[in-house]
Amino acid sequence: MNTNDLLSIKDFSEFTGIKQSTLRYYDEIGLFHPALRGENGYRYYSCQQIITVNLINVLTSLDIPRKKIIELAKERTPEGILKLFSTQEMILNDRLRQISNSYSVIQTFRKLIEEGLSADIDSIQRCTAASLPISLGPANHFLEDGQFYHTFIKYCNRAKKQGVNLSYPIGGYYKNLDSFMQTPSQPNIFFSLNPLGNEEKPAGDYLVGYTRGYYGEMGTLPQRLYDYAKENNIDLEGPVYAIYLQDELCLPDTSDYLVQISALIKK
Fold it and tell me: Which of 78, 85, 223, 247 is most open to solvent, judged by the fewest CB atoms within 10 Å of its CB?
């Protein structure tokens, strides 16, 4: 083999972006040998080896055991490479799903926080909203003491067993305004704001109000919504949704948690 047709380790390193020390290390451990060692001991590489070493770097970045890569380097076959690729494709698909899910969770929380920052929390407003995917849980059954967290934990445990992603914000669903007025700290159903949910908060006109306080603490908001609807001849057919725009994720004081209540207006 003529060295005139080969690349020196310096040229090969510059072309591939792989350090000369790394190429020497690959050679020493049997992972990637030069095409030729000159009489002077210099390493020379062929152009087609660029493909091989780039693939080795890709496989290494995918956390494939170096021992496995060395085995493939010594005895490469189409079948062996296809088997490896199939395995790594499954691993990468899992990673992509995890990354996509994490991105979606961040975007969901981000939208809520931004909405809370721009909300006029002292007013009651009539707003038009687009549909919102949600995942409704089963009907809630509160104990006589009305403890919010006992029922909430029960929902979370059941949802987890059913494979519901609890990384998304969780809200409260009331079948109508009367239900919300009677027991504002006890939603009829909990729901997840999972964008892949099989139900939805329907599009339409809503009467919207805000209040601050710990989970389930609605203060005077239920009465304010009722009075506003009555004074303005607004017929609320329900349901009512409670969504926390800002909570422990960004606020250390529980009394500052910001909840949005939206009641569907009858068409």
Answer: 78
Torsion, CA 71, CA 73, CA 74, CA 77, rounded to 10 = 90
Which residue segment(s) compose the domain that 121 sits in?
A: 104-265
Q: What is the mean pLDDT of residues 205-210?
A: 97
Instruction: For CA atoms 154, 158, 160, 164, give the dihedral sign.
Output: negative
Is residue 206 within 8 A of residue 127, CB to CB? The reply is yes
206: buried, middle or exposed (CB in 10 Å: 19+, 13-18, 0-12)? buried
Domain count, the chain: 2
Predicted confidence at residue 146, as pLDDT, reads 60
The pLDDT value recorded for residue 48 is 87
Structure tokens at 181: 């007025």
95 assigned to some structural domain: no
| Distance of alpha carbon 30 from alpha carbon 69, whole angstroms | 10
Whole-structure pTM value: 0.76
pLDDT for residue 160: 84
Tokens 């490469």 -> residue? 76
Residue type, 190: F
Query: pLDDT of 109-137, one tens digit each?
Result: 999 999 999 999 999 999 999 999 999 99
DSSP 206-224: EEEEEEESSTT--TTHHHH
Average pLDDT of span 224-234: 95
pLDDT for residue 159: 86
Q: How many residues does the chain have?
A: 267
Domain assignment present for residue 90? The answer is: no
Amino acid present at 180: F
